[in-house]
Design a protein that fits this description.
The structure is a homodimer of 600-residue chains.
Chain A: E1 2-4, H1 23-30, E2 34-38, E3 41-44, H2 46-65, E4 69-70, E5 76-78, H3 79-84, H4 87-90, E6 96-99, E7 105-108, H5 113-123, E8 132-141, E9 156-166, H6 169-190, E10 195-198, E11 209-215, E12 221-226, E13 231-233, E14 254-257, H7 264-274, E15 288-296, E16 302-310, H8 317-328, E17 335-338, H9 341-345, H10 369-372, E18 375-378, E19 387-394, E20 397-403, E21 412-413, E22 432-447, H11 449-453, E23 457-459, E24 465-467, E25 469-476, H12 477-487, E26 489-490, E27 493-494, E28 505-509, H13 514-529, E29 534-537, H14 544-554, E30 558-562, E31 570-575, E32 581-585, H15 589-598
Parallel strand pairs in A: 1-29, 4-8, 16-18, 18-21, 28-29, 28-30
Antiparallel strand pairs in A: 2-3, 5-7, 6-7, 8-9, 9-25, 10-11, 11-22, 12-13, 12-22, 14-20, 15-16, 15-17, 19-20, 22-25, 23-24, 26-27, 30-31, 31-32
């Protein structure tokens, strides 16, 4: 194919769009790949659609290669199946909801577990029909609170989602492994570096899940990795728990007035001065900070919880959001924030700055929910036998040597503290480092949750009905285009990896001679005949500077310039990424470029 | 490719689905091509998606061949552009509307004129940039009052829509002609018979528009055609108007009591008995029937209009709906129905059964709207000088010899009467016959309506700003799959045209010998090596009867049976459409099938 730039529906922009906050967004708009239609909603121009199509083709090939079969579901779906699984409610404000002319409820699907489950239920009845892997490449909707970064977090986006159906756990594991392999091959072919991170906290139990993160500073996800190979998203990191201590010898707890200790540091200094430990000085990590949080549930309810953690750590709200639902007995997405004054006013026992569990008052303020009416959860570091300085639930007073397991209890543990660089990896593989990434894919062993809710059973070899076990696997296809742009650009424009570039070669004629244009025309035709996909800048009156600028902005990996060198019988072949250029005799140009493009 | 039926995600059904009212719907569901997700909303299974993909590929090739460039717009769009053109309102209940979490209004786009117009405005500024033809193959939404017939009239469906942008009318004509040609090639390649019909009434003026209808009894659109080549949809047919008569010699109108004339026939008989015409007997076509209609506007308003037409004709509400908006000064879709008792009660001058225009009362009941407050429109046959029997606006009384142009006037003419088989074609090409069809495509010279509303201008050769002129062109892609099924089936199943069939060859092994399956395996591999796309029924324990039944239901055009004949060194090649079969030596099978498939 030869596409003439003079005919291509394209207008490159010199200025960055005002609303673009990351490089991929800026460059994809400036180079004429996409345009914004509404917040988080984009149109694909011819160049963008070509790259998108190449990404889709790679995804499709690798999914087909593991025996997955392509189907296509509607985006507009009735409420009922999502009601059965409770996701109609759980999705909260992230779900686009609407009514039809008969006032029946519909949604724009954010993901299709329910529909795939019902389809397999409709079609299959026996374990002999399984396994089956189904996928689609389809437009999804999510009413993000903060759409940002162009295609990186949109409200209408393209996903490949697949689902596996097996009669037993071994089958699910095989399906999961097959998808994991396919995903790694897809990202490799796309030229997209990814790190596979554990995405479900081991402490929470549950099924296996991994995210594929593309490391980049503009990523929204923080993840950790160790030199020894551990990788996890921050929500999934489990704390290395110190051993429990015997509290037989611990001194008795005592309440003291602690004037002039507005900060943890001043409190620790005061403690070391007035009530020194016998074994070592008090440290910030010996203070027990009790943080009051408000949790907004998908149902619209707001719940107050208190989390106790060492005073040298901050609460990571995302980590709390990942697991607090299980403690509250709700599924779906929750939003967690610091409790407001109004929230606190409803719990007058909580004395701001002096909140603590245990013995300090006749009526315990914090402890187990059954005793106090307030859910109280502890950082895993608060093991039995540890001694703490914490609030006494009275203004100006703290309690000292309050000992876990002896003087106070809680409703359970929670991974709520921030993970810090230097923390130990849970598998002992060394200290963690923190990095940011974009979630490119997610694979998840769903197990029987959806099959149970929607009653998907098959007959096993003994004629007994068994519930099917499922996996769910997603790749952000439109997001991949943005991630590729983010990871492959310089200050002058995009630099596409060859496998997804909109064209193989960007050919341009620079100069005014008729001979130059005739030679460029001929070369375009010859390259086409050799099976290359050519973008030919045939604009007769555009300056070389503008042509070079557009070529660099558009980012085809190889540029061929037919210009001054023609008098000497050569064309210039330039590598967009390295900037290197070589002069190639006209007669050799096709062979040379085939070699460059085909990688030989 | 070889697809093994034992692995294919497929389950054929013996029973028709309960909700399927047409053959294409029944068979596409039974043969495992589609499944219903909600009223008018369907999921595509692997077989269906393959056929859909082949249809899309043909559409894409022909659009690219006329220089159209593919883009892709969102389905979820903000209200604002549709507000500017007033279509937010005009679409009425057919539009799916929703709000996002910030309560901003959105819609699911039924068509994208606004967005394409704004995109070109964003990108282009000069006549030199034009023409540009843009298209997309995209999911559209329309909240149909009566979704029916499976994919034939859905609420979520796939359309190819394209738009042309030109600086002048000649350019628009070229764009229109190019699309017209591409559409005819597309339908030809799909194997889909279509009739191009005029879709805009010449009487209404306005731009050129044609629909491509696939003739079938299950079609919702009625169209007419003459032996001489005229074709139009019923809304577009113009009446052959008789010449005006001189009313100088017409007798004076006279009001008479007309007891016992409950029907037009009895009224005519009474007239011939008591007040005979001097030239010929009165006929039903000489009575002027005045029909009161209620028009529901997109704004929610309800307007009353009266239409006068010869008593031997009925009003065709669809024809009225097509043009009444222009008379009322509103754009968009209107719904017309007979006025209710409540509507009539608001106009006490209208005496049911005795409504008439003209002189019969001091205060005219019907005439021009300025005189009566009621819009009154006449069938084109009511030309000046014609003499009528009509109501006298008094119970039991009619007026005779009421003469058009002398005794009464109206606000204008309207094509409101039913078109009947035998009516003359407006171009004189002979009597019309009526037929039914499915609208497969529609091409339309929009002109400057959208460009004006959204201010799309370019600089012309003289540096003057000119408004761009546009065309809009649509093909129902998912509907084409259903129309192809509708036009290509028998009582046993589907019979796909070769260009859109899900596979080239349906190969089956029948019998139990290992040799048979080994030979079938080998043939499958050889056919694949020869570039054919093979569905191989490799099920080891399925009876030949079930295999044949599935093959006939699925409808691949050519079946190859490896069975009993193998002992004699032959396989059976069967044509699904004709039922003809030939025995072919195994050694020749690949060559023979290549010939059949490639049409040589």
């Amino acid at each position: 194919m030869v596409t003439r730039l003079s005919q291509l529906f394209l207008r490159t922009l010199r200025e960055d769009p005002a609303d673009a906050d990351v490089a991929s967004h800026r460059l994809l708009v400036r180079a004429g790949y996409i345009r914004r239609a509404a917040p988080g909603i984009y149109s694909w121009l011819p160049l963008g659609l070509k790259v998108l199509g190449r990404v889709e083709a790679i995804v499709r090939e690798e999914m087909n290669a593991i025996g997955a079969q392509e189907v296509h579901f509607p985006a507009l779906l009735p409420r009922e199946p999502y009601e059965v699984t409770n996701r109609w409610t759980e999705y909260g404000e992230n779900l686009f909801r609407l009514q039809d002319r008969r006032e029946a409820d519909y949604l724009l699907a954010p993901t299709h577990e329910e529909m795939f489950t019902l389809l397999v239920k409709d079609m299959y009845t026996s374990y002999k029909d399984l396994p089956v892997y189904l996928y689609q490449i389809q437009t999804k909707y999510r009413d993000e609170a903060r759409p940002r970064a162009g295609l990186l977090r949109g409200r209408e986006f393209i996903m490949k989602d697949s689902y596996s159906f097996d009669a037993d756990d071994d089958g699910l594991q095989r399906a999961y492994d097959a998808h994991r392999g396919a995903y790694l091959r897809i990202f490799d072919r796309l030229g997209l570096e990814v790190v596979a991170v554990n995405a479900v906290s081991g402490a929470m139990g549950g099924s296996r899940s991994e995210e594929f993160l593309h490391p980049t500073d503009v990523g929204e996800d923080t993840f950790v990795r160790s030199a020894g190979g551990y990788a996890a998203n921050v929500e999934a990191v489990t704390t290395v728990v110190p051993p429990a201590l015997d509290h037989a010898g611990a001194p008795a707890a005592h309440v003291e007035a602690t004037p002039d200790t507005p900060t943890i540091d001043t409190l620790v200094a005061d403690a070391n001065a007035r009530f020194p430990r016998e074994d070592r000085p008090w440290a910030a990590a010996d203070t027990l900070k009790n943080v009051v949080l408000a949790v907004d549930l998908p149902t619209g309810q707001r719940r107050i919880v208190v989390i106790g953690l060492p005073g040298d750590r901050a609460v990571d709200l995302k980590r709390v959001e990942a697991t607090i639902g299980a403690h509250l007995g709700v599924a779906g997405e929750v939003a967690v924030e610091a409790a407001t004054e109004a929230d606190l006013a409803a719990h007058p026992g909580l004395v701001k700055g002096y909140i603590g569990p245990g013995i300090a008052l006749d009526e315990p303020v914090l402890g187990t929910e059954s005793a106090t009416g307030l859910l109280y959860l502890l950082d895993p570091r608060v093991v039995d036998g540890t001694r703490w300085i914490t609030g006494a639930n009275q203004p100006g007073r703290h309690v000292f040597d309050l000992t876990a397991g002896r003087d106070f209890a809680a409703d359970g543990g929670i991974e709520a503290s921030e993970v810090r660089a230097g923390d130990e990896a849970p598998d002992g593989s060394g200290p963690l480092e923190l990095a940011r990434g974009i979630e490119m894919g997610h694979i998840f062993q769903l197990g029987r949750k959806y099959a149970e809710a929607l009653d998907l059973q098959v007959l096993d070899a003994n004629g007994k009905r068994v519930t099917v076990t499922m996996g769910s696997y997603g790749i952000g296809v439109s997001r991949a285009v943005a991630a590729l742009a983010e990871g492959n650009h310089d200050e002058r424009g995009l630099i596409w990896p060859r496998n997804v570039a909109p064209f193989d070669v960007h050919l341009m004629a620079t100069g005014k001679g008729e001979k130059i244009f005739a030679a460029a025309e001929q070369l375009a035709a010859d390259l086409q005949a050799a099976g290359l996909d050519v973008l030919y800048d045939d604009r007769p009156r555009t300056s070389p500077g503008v042509k070079f600028g557009d070529a660099e902005l558009i980012g085809v990996p190889t540029t061929v310039v037919v210009g001054r060198g023609l008098a000497d019988g050569v064309v210039e072949v330039r590598d967009r990424r390295t900037g290197d250029s070589v002069d190639v005799p006209v007669a050799d140009a096709v062979g040379h470029l085939r070699g460059v493009v085909r990688g030989s």
